[in-house]
Please model this.
Amino acid sequence: MKEFLIRFIRDEQGQDLVEYALIVAAVGLALITTVNTLSQAVVSLYSSITQGLASIGAGGV
Model:
């Protein structure tokens, strides 16, 4: 039993999978944050364009 525990503790199989999973999680979190920020910027830009067009339309009448 003692030998099994020692081999289990020293075994590094599967460690790469955990590291890759952590990297994928970090990249995914960064992408989500970036997309959220970009979407807010696009909404703000669209809002300012529509307000500008509305003011042009109101001034021309």
Summary: The first helix runs from residue 2 to 10.
